[in-house]
Amino acid sequence: MTGYVAGDVTVKYRAAPRTRAPWPHQVGVIPREAAAFQERDEVEQLRAAVTGGGTAVLCQVLRGTGGVGKTQLAAHYARQAWKMGELDVLVWVNAGSRPAIISTYAQVAEELLAAEPGDPERSAQAFRRWLEPSPPGSGPVCRWLVVLDDVADPADMTGLWPTKNPHGRTVVTTRRRDVAVPGQRIDLGVFTPEEAAAYLSGFLAEHGRHEDPSGVQALAQDLGYLPLALSQAAAYIVDADVPIDCPGCTHTHCTSYRRRLTARTTKLGSVLPEPSTLPDDQTTTLTTTWSLSIERADSLRPVGLARPALQLAAMLDGNGIPQDILAGLPARRYLAQYRTQATSDQGRSSDVSDQDVRDALRALHRLNLIDHSPDVPHQAIRVHQLIQRATRDTLTSQTFDETARVAADALAEAWPVTAHAKPLGQILRANVDALTRHALDALCSADEAHAVLLQAGNSLGDSGQVTAAVTHFQNLTRTVLGPDHPDSLAARKNLAHWLGKGGDETGAAAVIEQLLPDMVRTWGPDDPDTLATRSDLASWRGIAGDAAGAVAAYEELMPDLVRLLGPDHPHTLAARGNLARNRGMAGDAVGAAADFAKLLADRTRVQGPDHKGTLATRRELARLLGQAEDAALAAQACEQLTHLLADCVRVLGADHPDTLATRRYFANSRGAAGDAAGAVAAYEELMPDLVRVLGTNHPDTLATRSDLAGWRGQAGDAAGAVAAYKELLPDVVQALGADHQGTLTARNGLAYLRGEAGDAAGAVAAYEKLLSDLVRVLGADHPTTLIARGNLAHWRGRAGDAAGAAADFARLVPDLVRVLGRRHPRTRAAREGVAHWRGQAKTEVSRLFRKGI
I need a labelling partner for 589 at 20 to 30 A (CA). Which of 309, 323, 581, 777 fits? Predict the structure, then answer.
């Protein structure tokens, strides 16, 4: 109604009636189909979900923030339904805010219902009521589809949700997981690798770029198969005309782009199109899309914590981050310091609780910036790699370094105390790897390297990945820290440790020998770390075969330990144990037993009967008895180990590595006491626990398999033992390497049991081949080499070459005298071998050489 005034009289007139738009009718602009659009399985899910008046909510569960293709999928469905004549009314609503929703609803009411303009709220409600089912016979039926694209906040839709109607369909796209809409939720993730490669290839081909498939696949992987990232990267390659930076090469535009993308100094935004050149009617760049989501998450309770939580997560492994890392004290202090907003009753630096952290993670989860699954052990948090990249790009240099160091602190704090905590250790190592890729410089300052770098390397070795641990510490000492870095000394010591554990005892001794002068120069001759390094050097010398040299080194070290640390210091007691062990290895079993007996009394007095060192000393004493080649002593060892095992289970737990080692000694002692079948049974009972606790490829697991095969042969099943060794060898080579002592030991056992199985000539051939490797790897004087020479002589005689066997034993005797001494049992056995094969004796003399190492 309008009018005009004439004098004091108002003359009114009525406007012409508004006309309603005829059907079919469309309101709102549907985004045009993306170039190289990919058909996805979710298209059929969407069609099935909305058939018969259904509602479908397109969101995503894993890594599915803005950019997974929700809008394109909804637009494709709407376009197809319209073209197929399935709709009378199609309404596309850009639902990013309540005003935008109301505005579109009002426009529909004005066009379809002839509603008067001027009151958008009233008109919007009129349209919503029109969507409700009409009574039968009230008029023509309207088939409608309403697409609510990118609902940002569920509260924006209060009172505006289309009601269920058998003739209507509703499709909702959103980054939120908490949109409470009755209907079927379709979880939309990233492309499959095949879909991503097909999209990139198709897009580039349309613009004259025909790329090598391997380069396309690699780029798709670098972009995490995220549809929006793929489209914008492809547009950048085309529009920026990325040059080929490999003269003479063809089809390398993707490769050149990958070099830019993965360069550490390149920010993600610099390899994406400018907003004015975005493809497919896109309005925001990838980084802007996420920035809006982060702002929204940061405004949710607890206000201001979502952004710093995401910054920490961006430093770690997006495939799985333990929640405890972000809920630990270092992370909570960081969140308090970098809280981006504060409520009126909350200061920026106020304490952040565990619950605050969980709530912040849920806020990020609700906006699909992370996937938060608290019930998934050790991998509660997952983040798309490009979200991580974009988040890191927003940090200043100073904040970047501080965030990285806090992430390292949080990892170090979360590290398990027990070395055999396998699943968590593996996940933490993956997070350290990710952190070092992003921020290695921040972890290695001029005067200090972060402790988590050492933890990760030792964790590799503890989990059985000894070769990987060696590589880790080699890289750390040579490339990362350099020889003059203060923490190189600790890294070199760890390198020696894992070299030795990996079977290269000589290499371990060499590393420590080079390290010792640097320790003396840096810390002084009387520093505890210097003394510990001297002890390590003596230990590795003994393990490498120079038992006499190890005894001499420990005897030289002992007075300094007593003088500087005292006779009851743990390091002094440990050195006494190593001295006793090497004394036994040098052939003085009586002296070693006496040393261990005295040490056991002192450890019990100083550290108590349940101390780990006391239990270890008891184990060593029993082991000496079990190796005495005397069945009565071996039976005594079994009894001692039975009591020790009960104490280990009580004190350390059934799954502790020392408890498992005690069980292994017990099984071996049963065999030495004459019960080979009992040894086999004990080893078979032990094996599943070793696999469960340490893993299939741990050196102790593989060594136990070797022991089991050996005792199976001793129990009379030579053929079964040979089969077990043949099955074991490939696993040992793969896990430890061809030159590892465990591999050589397994080859020794296989060679011996071939002879026991009746193939003496095959045993001779195997030993001849093995000996050359033993001399090359371990040296001619190593005890293992000498044992193999005795075994070769034995089987040469059994194969019919008595003269050759006698000659082999005759050449072996002086070497045994020089290395082990005249009174060593193996020296006596070799002398008897000479006599036997010369026809001067009739006793079996090879008994001591049968067991291998």
Answer: 777
Round to whole Å and give the CA distance between 564 and 558.
10
Residue 847 has pLDDT above 50, yes or no: no
Q: Which sequence spans correspond to the domains of the chain?
A: 25-187, 193-277, 285-441, 444-490, 695-714+731-853
How much is the pLDDT for 275?
65
Taking the C-alpha atoms of residue 668 and residue 641, their distance in angstroms, rounded to an integer, is 11
- Beta carbons within 8 Å of 217's beta carbon, 6+ residues apart: 193, 197
Gap between the Cα atoms of 334 and 680, Å rounded? 55
pLDDT band at 423 (very low <50, low <70, confident <90, very high): confident
The two three-digit tokens of residue 772, written as one number: 């050359």
Q: Please tell me the CATH superfamily of domain 695-714+731-853, with its number.
A: Tetratricopeptide repeat domain (1.25.40.10)
Question: How much is the pLDDT for 248?
Answer: 46
Residue in 271, 272, 231 with CA at minimum distance from that of residue 32: 231
User: Cα(529)–Cα(761) distance, rounded to whole angstroms?
Assistant: 52
Distance from C-alpha of 472 to C-alpha of 113, rounded to nearest angstrom:
72
What does the alpha-carbon distance between residue 47 and residue 81 come to, in Å, rounded to a whole number?
A: 9
CB 87 within 8 A of CB 93: no
Indicate the SS3 state at residue 168: strand
- Answer yes or no: same fold for 285-441 and 695-714+731-853: no
pTM as predicted: 0.66
* Higher-confidence position of 599 and 625: 599
Q: What is the CATH topology of the domain spanning 285-441?
A: Arc Repressor Mutant, subunit A (1.10.10)
User: In Å, what is the CA distance from 585 to each residue of 547, 582, 591, 821?
Assistant: 6, 5, 11, 11
**Cα 600 to Cα 606: distance, rounded to the nearest angstrom:** 10
Residue with the bigger pLDDT between 291 and 715: it is 715
Label residue 281 left, alpha or beta by phi (over 0 means left) and psi (-120 to 50 means alpha). Answer: left
Residue 160, exposed/middle/buried by CB under 10 A (0-12, 13-18, 19+)? middle
Q: 460 or 2: whose pLDDT is higher?
A: 460
pLDDT at 637: 84
Task: Work out the mean pLDDT of the chain and round it to a whole number.
Answer: 83
Nearest partner of 433 among 263, 328, 319, 267, judged by Cα? 319
Could you report the per-residue pLDDT of 413-422, keeping only the tens digit for each? 988 866 445 6
Per-residue pLDDT of 494-552, as tens digits, reads 999 999 888 788 899 999 999 999 999 988 999 999 999 999 999 999 888 788 899 99
Q: Which carries the bigger pLDDT value, residue 275 or residue 146?
A: 146
CB 679, CB 670: distance < 8 Å: yes
Q: Tell me: domain 25-187, CATH 3.40.50.300, correct?
A: yes
- Give the sign of the dihedral formed by CA 479, CA 480, CA 486, CA 488: negative
Helices (H) and strands (E) in the chain, counts: 35, 10
678-690 confidence digits (pLDDT tens): 999 999 999 999 9
Residue among 500, 461, 456, 499 at smallest CA distance from 476 = 456
Phi, psi of 58 (to 5 degrees): -90, 105
Sort strands 168-174 and 144-151 into parallel, antiparallel or unpaired: parallel
Output the DSSP codes for 664-715. HHHHHHHHHTT-HHHHHHHHHHHHHHHHHHH-TTSHHHHHHHHHHHHHHHHT
